[in-house]
Amino acid sequence: MLANCLKIAICVGALVLYPKPVLPQIYALPAESLPAPLRAKEAPFIVELRFTGLRRIAPAAVAAQLKSREGEPFDAAKIDKDLRALAMLGWFESIQVEEASPILPPPQALENQQHIALIFHLEERPFLSKVEYSGSRLLSQKQIDKVLEDKKLAPGFGKPADPAALHRIAFAIRSGLNELGHPDASVHIQQEEAKNATVSVRFEINDGPLLPVRKVNFVGDPQLSSKLLRGQMRNITPWKPLASWRGKNAYTRDAIEEDRARILMYYQNHGYPEARIGNPRAARIKESSRRWFPWPHDATQTGLSVSVPVQAGHFYRFESIGASPALRQAAEGLAGKPVSIFNVEEGRPYSSQVIENLRRSWLARVQPRNTKDDAASVRAVESMTAFDADKQTAHVTFDLSDSQPYVVRRIEFQGLHRFNDRFMRRRIPLREGQPVNDRALEAGLARLARTGYFKPIRKEDIHVQMDDVTHTANVSIEVKEIGQQRASLVGGNGQFGSTLGIIYTVFDLLSREELLSGQLEGGPESLQIVLGLAKEGIFGTRASLAFSVFNNVIRPRFARSAQGPFFSSRSQGIAIPWTYPLNNTDSLGINYTLSRTTTTYSPAALIGVPGVTLGDVRTKTSSSSVGVGWARDTGSERIVFANSVSGGWLGGGENMVRSSAEYSRIFRDPFFSPTGAWAFRTTFSGAGSYRGDMPFYTRIFSGDELVRGLRPGELGPYAVTASTAANGATTYSASPAGANLLTAVNAEYRFPLGGGTEAVGFFDLGSGLLLPSWLGPTKPLLLGATNSVLHGSVGFEFRWTVPGVQVPVRAYYAVNVLRMNRFLPLSANSIFHAHNRFSAFGWGLGSLF
């Protein structure tokens, strides 16, 4: 019968320590063994589907999983798919299907047709009712539950007990113990089935002995020092401080494979293209050490010694690197001028990374700007390396590839739970049907990382499957969501003192791919509250529209002011920015802001000094402004231009023009260390009034956000202020007057230290000017010697990226090598000492640039 033709058996092992997936076995007999009706040319019709052995699962739920339907002809291929579909559910221990004679009469339309009934014999798996964990001294119940929840392996109570799921839980527990330094840990699965068809599962855990890695040796022919090779390791580093606390002395397969890949990459980038790294071997060792607590004694410690086989091979240097005439002609044809690409000095050690960087540089020169309309014109660039073993030199030539470019057939995102596929595709410029462009893919992944909702995507998370026959590629990207809700820290030593705040964002709360955000940031001298709503893909385009409401309060206390704070300001309003991406790197933005500012001046401030007019004790100014900006962000280079105008036909009492520009770039160190990077930034900003007075609060009081080591307002000049003492005498002093024109240059050398920490050496240079002609009719009495002074500082900075929130915390020490230090007379009896600190410590949250 049919039961002998197609059968599935699912076997469950009671004990698996390192589980392998057990695939269902499908048995099929040759067609000659089928009953005569099924071998007939005309297949019989199925008039009845019956299920036996069901206790908890409804027959309708099983029937919904089948492709075979009553009233349809029998199809063996469909039956095969039905059996596999039922097996994949994980509901049944065994599945059988057989042919039988129908009990009910067939429908009238099938009376003259051959008809059969199919009976599915099903044996349900028991339902999981209880899970216990016993035997572990290291992992508590709560810790195990958290590990399983993070890996989405929490047992499903009230559902059929899936053996594969139980094995995955056991493997996750064992992996957690391995990461704690217990490589011999084991997990046994014990099941106890009750009479009511439920099962209780107990995971018997044996922690095993503590065996931390104590030594790492490199055997064979490494050519390089062990100290240098150990420096490339990031996961297993028992020689580093607090290694046991940070889990850096635990031996796991994944950890050693990552370190092995880093060591191999170091060899291939430092002159050893033929280097081979073998499979590491771990062996138990015993070490004797002298202990002094609680009394001097000798102690024996057990652990692991890891041996890594290394064969460095020959050392090669670059003898020549060039491009073919066809490649240069193609690049110059698109650029319209001779093309020059950074080349490598001859005699430098061979580096596969340098070759890849040059290949991608040439690729960017020969690719058309728009591949949508002219995909066939896309040309690939390949590198050809010839090694001379006698001279130990390498010759590299770049040329256009004769092969047809690969076209993206499918892009798939794995690991999505809260975010939909459309959200991901909007941020990645690589499209299906277009040629493979790794630069576009990297730019999109960097854009995804900047959203803060995903963990950094590494190379091993990207899988590209090439089809050499059709010249197509399937791209699969594994993403790990942090969540739709995100909290970030902000703050630092800004224009008006130190601040600390939090930004809380919620994405897709209303299922419209909208972003709700709230920011609260404050300190002794300022408070800022912002509520915002943003939506991407507005009106069916790639543009984004936002709406925010803000409330800012500042009450500055400038250093050495006469009566500080002599004013306080409060601004309320709304801002509506609209952004449209022009291409993969450029975007155009338009912003409209409507605000109302109330400024209160100190009654003790006098107007007796010539040129100083504070006006009313309280002023209210409304502002309506429109701004236009353009930004380019390639990941390593950023250019921003922004301009805005307020007043005039827009209305309001503020008639201002503002402009700013910023250029920053980061690139890998080509001289000292490949892991280091150089970073540069130059910035310019200016503001002025074209009619009426420029409000005092619109001046720029910059400090260490441009030149580290300066106090708020010290980048600009000082102005004379006056106050009246109790005896009626007038006292003169100086306080920061702000600036309306600023420029600064920053240079940094960044070197990663590991663990999310980075060391930075910096040099800052900047100057602030207050141009009276830009202020309107009312002008302050400036101390000319303090205007347009060049300030400069050097120092070092440490940055640590907080896990989870992914916000850098900066701490720096700066020495003001170009600082102001002058004595200036204010009156016949008053002298003001204008000076900057010689050195200063500072801090901040978030990247400086």
Structure report:
The protein has 849 residues and is mainly beta. The protein is built from 11 helices and 38 strands. A 16-stranded antiparallel β-barrel has the order 19-20-21-22-23-24-25-26-27-28-29-32-33-34-35-38. Strand 19 and strand 20 form a beta hairpin. The longest helix is centred in the first third of the chain and has 17 residues. The radius of gyration is 36 Å and the shape is globular.
Shape: globular
In the predicted model, the low-confidence regions spanning at least 5 consecutive residues are 1-40, 560-565, 604-616
How helical, in percent, are the residues?
A: 10-25%
Number of helices: 11
Overall residue-averaged pLDDT value: 80
Structural class by sheet pairing and helices? mainly beta
Biggest sheet character: 16 strands, antiparallel, barrel
Q: How many beta-strand elements? A: 38
From the N-terminal CA to the C-terminal CA, the straight-line distance is 75 Å
Task: Tell me the radius of gyration.
Answer: 36 Å
Lateral arrangement of strands in the main beta sheet: 19-20-21-22-23-24-25-26-27-28-29-32-33-34-35-38
Question: Which percent band covers the strand fraction?
Answer: 35-45%
Notable features of this structure?
849 residues; mainly beta; 16-stranded antiparallel barrel; five-stranded mixed β-sheet; 11 helices; 38 strands; 43% strand; disordered N terminus
Task: Provide a brief overview of the structure.
By secondary structure, the protein is mainly beta. The protein is built from 11 helices and 38 strands.
